[in-house]
Every structure is written in structure tokens, then in C-alpha cells.
């Protein structure tokens, strides 16, 4: 019986003698049994489980779909961070010399067109204007005097013409008498005495001289008329010059009041009451209400860009406000072509660089916020995205 029992134990792989010490509570037997139980609880590795691969495939599909949608959306836009708010800043300068007697407190404030911003002392300008007006009045008086001289010369000519009628008539009668006496003397020398013929000749000569003097008086009167008319023209020229001086003085007087040529925000004021200014001295500047964006796109981004395309505008100062715009124009030429010293690329070490082309973008206040409602001004950074597809 013992042999059969041993044989059965050997066949089944059981060794009672060897297992007995473990059954008695040995430390090694407890650790091995715990490791085997942990391995059974963990199961197969994570990468061998079907659930892992299903989740991984779903994640890859979602990432691929999201990437495709992002690319399809992104390819519709061309954007750049090389863009800034721009405007035609108006810099106000004095046009006459003088001391400022008033300066409006309008720093960083919006003013309408025509608002009074500063005033220059009017003393010198008022004196110049009064002098010019006095010269104009004097020129007007000279014109009236010259016109009176013209009328006097014309009257003198009339009297000379009237006075010349009698000498001319007497000269004509004496010349006719002389011709008759000469003709009679030819026919009959005894018909006309020599003394009578001499008297006729003397009478004709005397009356001819008187007629010539009368005609000369007429010519002198006509010359006086011409001189008087020239004086009128000279006086009129002096009057025109005086009136021009009055206008110039009036313009200068008008330049004493410095007003806003356009509506906008007053910035960069550099003068105050009591400051002395001269022509060309900059007083302040005005940022107009009309703003736009100058975006420097790469030349490779312009193939599908057209005027009128919508633009999404992000201003760095207001990242939560979504401004709208549209493409207004594209400059025909890269920015470096208009530099003061254009680059000379005719060298052996030329390296091609993608050029930037300025694109003007206008704010669309009908479909988006109005930039005038925000403190946005020239030089501020923006990121425009032009929808090109």
C-alpha cells in the first residue's frame, strides 16, 4: 500500500514531505503565494488588451479629423503679425511768429473740425493790417486825382480844338487869297501890285503859323490826357498792390487762431501759454477718426488676395474684441523698393529673401465694432486674417 501511495504522489506531482514545511507557516511560502496572486490579478499587459487598441485608434481618428478640419479652415485665411494701425496724422505748426496767449486744454481729447486750439498775440498783425488798409485808401485817392487830371486834360483839348478853328480858317483864307493873286499876276503883271502880293504872302504865312500853333496846342492837350491816363493806371496798380497787402495781412491775422483742420484726438502737445513760436514750430498733432491697418504680407501670400475680401482683425490691446475689416488696396511693389537706399542685389553672394508687401485694410464698422469706441491709435500691433478662399 505504501508503494502505491508513493507512486500516486509521484504521478500527480505532489510531494507531501516537501510541502509540509510550507504548510507549517514558513516565510518563503507566503511571499511566493502573494506574487502569484498579484500576477493573476494584473492580467496581460496593457498593449495586449483589445480595449487599449480600440481607444488608441479612436484617438488617432479624432486627431486626424480635427487636424483635417483645422487645415481646411486654416487654408482659407492668410494672416500676418507684421501689421499695425495706421492713419494720416496731422501735425499742427505755427505760420506766424509770436507769443501764445491761449492754449486749449485738449490733451488726448477728441475735438471737432474747426475747434480753436491756440491763439498767438495779435498786436503786430493788427498793425500790419491797419497799415495795408491805409495804403489802399491812399491808392484810391491817387486814382481819383489821376482821373480828375484826365478830365481836365480832355477839357483843355476841347478848348484847344475850339481855339484852333479861327486860325485854321484865317490860314485857309490867306492861302486862297495868295493863290488868286499869284494866278492874276501870271495873267497880267499889272493887275496885282507887288506890295499887295507881298502882303498876301505875309498874311498867309502868319495865319499858317497861327494854325500850326493851334494844332500843336491840341496835340499837347492830347499828350496831357495820355499822361493823366497813365497816372490813373499807376494809381490803380498801387491800389491793387495795397489790396493784396490787405489780403496778406488778413491771412496773417487769420493765422493767429490755430484751429483743428479735421476732427480727431489731440496728442503730443508741446507748447503752453506764454511760449514763443515761429513759423514751422510744431505745436501739437491730431490723430484723425479714420484709421486703417497696414499689413505687411509675404509676397507668397498674395496669390489669392483681392480687394474687398473680408478680414478678421485681432488687436493685441483688446484680444477679446473681434474687429471686422476688408481689403482696400495692395501696394504695387515691395516695401524695400521704396527705401531711401534700396538694396543692390547685383552681387555674387545674393541670398533670396521673401519680401513684404504692404496691404491696406479698412475697418468694417457695419459688421463689427467701431475702433473709435476703443483707445486704438497708430502704431498699435494687430493680427489680420484675410479670407482668401
Polypeptide structure, described:
With 389 residues, this protein is an alpha+beta fold. Helices cover 48% and strands 21% of the residues. It has 6 helices and 15 strands. The strands form 3 sheets. Strands 2-11-14-13-12-15 form a 6-stranded antiparallel barrel. Strands 3-10-8-5 form a 4-stranded antiparallel beta sheet, with no helix packed on it. The longest helix has 65 residues, at 123-187. The model is unreliable at 1-29 (pLDDT under 50).
In short:
The protein is of the alpha+beta class. It has helices spanning 2-12, 16-23, 27-42, 50-74, 123-187, 194-254; strands spanning 77-79, 83-86, 90-93, 98-103, 110-111, 116-120, 257-259, 264-267, 276-277, 282-288, 292-298, 310-315, 318-330, 356-363, 381-387. Helix content is 48%, strand content 21%.
Can you tag this structure with a few keywords?
about 400 residues; 4-stranded antiparallel β-sheet; 6-stranded antiparallel beta barrel; disordered N terminus; Elongation Factor Tu (Ef-tu), domain 3; single chain; alpha+beta; Helix Hairpins
Unreliable sequence segments: 1-29
Q: How would a textbook summarize the main sheet?
A: 6 strands, antiparallel, barrel
Q: Please count the beta strands (DSSP E, at least 2 residues each).
A: 15
What is the alpha-carbon Rg in Å?
57 Å
Second-tier CATH architecture of the largest domain = Orthogonal Bundle
Describe the strand arrangement of the main beta sheet, using strand numbers. Answer: 2-11-14-13-12-15
Question: What's the domain count?
Answer: 3
Work out the helix count: 6
In terms of DSSP E residues, the strand content is: 15-25%
Helix content: 40-55%
Give me the secondary-structure category: alpha+beta
Mean pLDDT: 77
Amino acid at each position: 500500500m505504501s508503494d502505491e501511495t508513493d507512486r500516486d504522489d509521484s504521478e500527480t506531482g505532489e510531494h507531501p514531505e516537501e510541502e509540509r514545511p510550507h504548510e507549517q507557516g514558513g516565510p518563503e511560502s507566503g511571499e511566493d503565494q502573494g506574487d502569484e496572486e498579484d500576477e493573476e490579478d494584473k492580467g496581460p499587459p496593457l498593449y495586449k488588451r483589445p480595449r487599449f487598441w480600440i481607444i488608441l485608434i479612436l484617438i488617432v481618428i479624432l486627431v486626424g479629423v480635427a487636424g483635417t478640419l483645422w487645415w481646411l479652415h486654416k487654408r482659407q485665411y492668410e494672416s500676418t503679425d507684421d501689421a499695425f494701425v495706421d492713419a494720416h496724422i496731422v501735425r499742427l505748426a505755427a505760420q506766424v511768429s509770436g507769443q501764445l496767449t491761449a492754449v486749449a486744454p485738449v490733451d488726448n481729447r477728441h475735438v471737432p473740425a474747426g475747434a480753436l486750439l491756440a491763439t498767438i498775440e495779435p498786436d503786430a498783425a493788427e498793425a500790419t493790417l491797419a497799415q495795408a488798409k491805409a495804403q489802399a485808401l491812399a491808392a484810391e485817392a491817387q486814382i481819383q486825382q489821376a482821373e480828375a487830371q484826365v478830365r481836365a486834360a480832355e477839357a483843355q483839348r476841347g478848348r484847344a480844338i475850339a481855339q484852333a478853328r479861327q486860325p485854321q480858317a484865317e490860314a485857309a483864307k490867306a492861302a486862297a487869297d495868295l493863290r488868286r493873286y499869284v494866278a492874276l499876276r501870271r495873267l497880267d503883271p499889272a493887275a496885282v501890285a507887288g506890295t499887295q502880293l507881298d502882303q498876301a504872302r505875309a498874311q498867309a504865312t502868319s495865319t499858317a503859323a497861327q494854325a500850326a500853333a493851334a494844332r500843336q496846342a491840341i496835340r499837347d492837350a492830347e499828350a496831357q490826357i495820355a499822361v493823366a491816363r497813365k497816372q490813373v493806371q499807376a494809381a490803380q496798380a498801387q491800389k491793387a498792390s495795397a489790396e493784396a497787402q490787405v489780403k496778406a495781412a488778413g491771412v496773417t491775422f487769420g493765422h493767429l487762431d490755430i484751429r483743428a483742420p479735421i476732427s480727431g484726438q489731440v496728442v503730443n502737445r508741446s507748447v503752453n501759454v506764454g511760449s514763443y513760436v515761429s513759423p514751422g514750430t510744431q505745436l501739437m498733432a491730431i490723430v484723425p477718426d479714420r484709421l486703417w491697418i497696414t499689413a505687411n504680407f509675404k509676397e507668397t501670400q498674395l496669390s489669392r488676395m483681392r480687394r474687398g475680401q473680408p478680414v478678421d482683425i485681432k488687436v493685441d490691446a483688446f484680444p477679446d474684441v473681434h474687429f471686422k475689416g476688408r481689403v482696400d488696396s495692395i501696394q504695387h511693389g515691395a516695401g524695400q523698393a521704396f527705401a531711401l537706399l534700396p538694396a543692390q542685389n547685383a552681387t555674387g553672394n545674393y541670398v533670396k529673401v521673401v519680401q513684404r508687401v504692404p496691404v491696406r485694410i479698412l475697418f468694417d464698422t457695419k459688421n463689427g465694432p467701431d475702433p473709435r469706441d476703443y483707445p486704438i491709435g497708430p502704431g498699435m500691433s494687430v493680427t489680420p486674417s484675410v479670407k482668401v478662399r
